[in-house]
Each structure stands twice: as C-alpha cells, then as structure tokens.
Amino acid sequence: MNLENFEKSKKLNTSEESISLEKKTAESKKEINLAEFKEQTIQATENKTEELIIQGQNQIDKIEEKSGLSLPNLVSIREEFGPFNKLKEIQGQSGAFVNEIKNKLADIGRPTKNLEEKNFPFPPIGEGEIFAPKIELQKIHQAPKEEQPERLREFKEKLTYQKKGLALIQEKIIQKIKENPDAPLGQLYEWVRDLGPKYGLTNEQKEISRKLLQTYVDKHAKVRSIREQYSDDKELFKALFGQEPKGDIKVVESPVTLYFRCQDPLDYTYLHSHSFQKSKDVTNEELKAAERSAGVTLGSCLVPGLERAITAENSFFVLSDYDSEQVFKHEEQHTIKQLFKDKLRESELLCQERELWAKFYQAIQNNDERLAALKSYLRVRRQIISDEKAKDEILAYLKEKRMTMTKIAEYLTIPKEKGGYYDYLISDKQRFISWFAENYSDEFKKFKSTIEKAVEEVYGEEYQNLIRKSVMALQSLRETGYSKEAIIALLIQEPLSGWEKVVKRLIHRVIGID
C-alpha cells in the first residue's frame, strides 16, 4: 500500500471509529435517559397513589376512633358497612393499576439472563481442583510480598467463579423443587455432585449443601403430612393455632409453606401478634399494628417441625388477586431464605462478637482506639440483629413486582418514630446503652460520649447507607440483565455488607457463567 492510500485508509478508519464512538455515546445517553424516565415516572405514580391511599385510610381511622365502638362491633361494621369496603376496593384496584404501569415501564429495554453454564476454554478453577477460600487466603498472606498482588488477583477470579457456580447449583435445585416438590434428597443433590468438581467445591461445602437439602426434604415432608392430615382449611387453622377461625380461611400449599389467606382481620391479627402462643384474644393495639400489614411469616406454630413454614395474608387489606400473588411470593421468599441460611457464618459472628467485646474493653489507651474498637464490635452485633433481616426483606421485596428499588431502600430506612416497620435496631440501641450503664457504670460514666457516638453512627447513618448501597448494588445486577432468581441465588449467601463488592466483581469481570 502506497503512502497516499495509507493516509486515505487511516482517515477512513478514524472517521468510522468516530462515528462508532458517537453512536455508542448516543446509545449510552439514550439508556440513561430511559432509565431516569422510568424511575421518575414509577416514583411519581407510586408516591401519588400512596398519598391518596394513606389519606383514605386516615379518614377511616378517624371515623373508627370517634365511634367509641368495641373491637368486635368495629370489625363487624367494617365488614358490613358499604363505604368502608368500597374505599378498600378502590384502593386495591388503584394499587393493581399502578403495579401494571410499573411492570410495563420496568421491562422496557431490559434484557434478562439466568445463570446458565457457559463453556470456557480456560476456566480459573481446573477440573478436579479444590478451592477453599479461607485456606487460599491464608496462603496469600504467607507468600512473599512481591507475589501477593498477582496471587490475590487469581484468588478473586476463582472466588467469583466459584460463587457463581454455587449460585447456579442453587438455582438448578430450586428449579427441580418447583418441578417436583417430592424429589428425594438424591435427586436434588445430583447438581452438587455433578457440578461440584467444576467449581472446586470442598468437602465442607458439599456437606453444607447436603444438610441444607436435607432440611428442605424434612420441612416439605412435614408440610405435606400436616396438610394431608387436615384437608379442611378451618380444621388446619385450629390444629396449628389452637382455635377455630372467626372468618373464611383459604390455605395454599407450596413445597415448604402453608399460606393462610385470612378474610377476617381478627384471624390475621391473631397470627400476626402471635396471640395463639399465649391463647389470648387480640387487643386493639395489636389489631392496629396488623391492619396495615399485608403478610407475615411465623417463626413457629403449635405443631413442632413447622418453624418458618407458616405464612399468612391479610386478605382484608390485600384485595386484588395480583397483590395477593405478590404477597405470597414475598412471604415464600422468606421461607426459602431461611432454608439457605448460613448457620456456620452465624456461629462465626457470635464468636467475633465476643472477641471484639474483649478487645474494646481492653482498648483503654486513648479515645480514638476505644471508639474504633467499639464500632467494630457494634458492626458485628448489628449484622446479627439487623443486617440479615434487612437482607431477607430486600430479597423478598425483589420477588414482588410492586416495588421499585428506590422504594425498597426508603421502606427499610424509615425510623420507627416516623412509622417505619423495619427499624430493627431501635430496641437494641436503647437496650445496649442501658445495659452498659448498669453493668459497667464506672466505664460508662468515663466513656459515655464515646459509647453514645459509636452507637449513633453504626446503628444510624452507617446502617442506612449500607441499606441504600446494597439496594443500588442489586439494582445494578437488574440493569445488567440478571433475572430475579439469578440475583437471589447470587446474593442469598452473601452478607449485606459484602453485596457491593460482590456485585462489582460480577459486573466488571464476567467469568465462568453468564
């Protein structure tokens, strides 16, 4: 090629590159504008509808408070007096309409991908290789400093690959359970057995997976057994909660849950308040607390073996079939989350809590040292008390189609004094300071400002920022195209504090599975 032709070719290539860059920039701006439009439209519609619903509910509350009626009479009038039911019906219909708008907007321009296997010529973990993250990390710390950066890079690559492999296995198992809830342990475990070598699973990881699956098999057998024993919905209610329901009950059986749709608010409140454990009638305060709750997952009932397997719906509050389906998915996800609970990590956190308390108590050299030590202790304590619950709620809300990511973050960070339902830390915040003052009075007097400052920061602004960042990380996966099921599988075993880091690795370094 002569010089003249070379220059022409160079100009042509430069021009094509420029056009391509402009095209990519325009597409990028279009995606950003579309995302902003969707979020703003969804948010505005949701806010306005919620404002109208709250206004209507407040009017009902005011009328009820001024009526002076007893609780049974109040409930009776609610059911029979037309305007009350009509307002509730309108609220249900408007909610369903808003949800339909939100779903259509959310799906515009969004690709969807599940965790499907992808053939890679050079996977980071070789066939037959065992990758134990804790042991490998220790080896890196013991290696010469000049080798550590490269070994750490390889470690992160293998860790991400293995985590995605574990998520794929979990997704396959849940799919198998949906297809055949009665599948025996051997059939469910075959995904661990077949894919384990590909992702370097250790014997400990395989054993944990086997125990989790055994938990499912046992729980499913118990749910199926009690349902077969009590095929009548009202008889089942009485067997599990000690008394006959006051209103209509409909029970939906899923692989690991019995879902009670309670038409009478007194029945729902009886479950929501756990009054059945004390064989007592519900109070006005308990009715008030339950009436705006759409659904609940119960930790126990009167029949052993059904812990976290009983869920309930406030059908008096949830009027549309669409919303009922969303509440069911939400509560079922709580049960699934419980099945895949990392009990080993829970034990490790309790050990960390004890160790960090001892470290704080010994940190008396200076105030900065004490503050740092106490914050470390409180972060672990917070993980035990609230982080896991918040993670559970985020994943449960993800299963629904009614909530935007922005709304989920907002719901989980509203303080209790402003009507927040998920302020898990408010009680422990007060309890911890009181306990410290009573048991370590001298130290508390001396370090009072340090203690109160640490609690306020870790339980307050720091926790709220963690919720927002975690929800944003989840949203990033949604925008990348991961399905809800894939996201849950990827994040269900990760601590909330690790979501942001895990998502960055998944998005910026796509390996192993896409």
List the helices and strands and how they pair.
Blueprint (H helix, E strand, L loop, with lengths): L2 H65 L3 H10 L1 H26 L25 H10 L5 H32 L5 H11 L7 H27 L3 H9 L7 E6 L2 E6 L2 H8 L11 H7 L4 E4 L11 E5 L6 H19 L3 H20 L4 H33 L5 H8 L13 H14 L1 H40 L3 H8 L7 H10 L6
Parallel strand pairs: 2-4
Antiparallel strand pairs: 1-2, 3-4
Helix pairs in contact: 1-3, 4-5, 5-6, 5-17, 6-7, 9-10, 11-13, 12-13, 13-14, 13-16, 14-16, 15-16, 16-18
Task: Describe this protein's structure.
Helix 1 (3-67) packs antiparallel against helix 3, helix 4 (133-142) packs antiparallel against helix 5 and helix 5 (148-179) crosses helix 17 (484-491). The chain has 514 residues and is mainly alpha-helical. The chain folds into four domains: 27-107; 133-226, no CATH class; 230-333, no CATH class; 342-508, no CATH class. It has helices at residues 3-67, 71-80, 82-107, 133-142, 148-179, 185-195, 203-229, 233-241, 265-272, 284-290, 321-339, 343-362, 367-399, 405-412, 426-439, 441-480, 484-491, 499-508, and strands at 249-254, 257-262, 295-298, 310-314. It is globular, with a radius of gyration of 27 Å. It has 18 helices and four strands. A hairpin with a 2-residue loop joins strand 1 and strand 2. The protein has a four-stranded mixed beta sheet with strand order 1-2-4-3, sandwiched between helices.
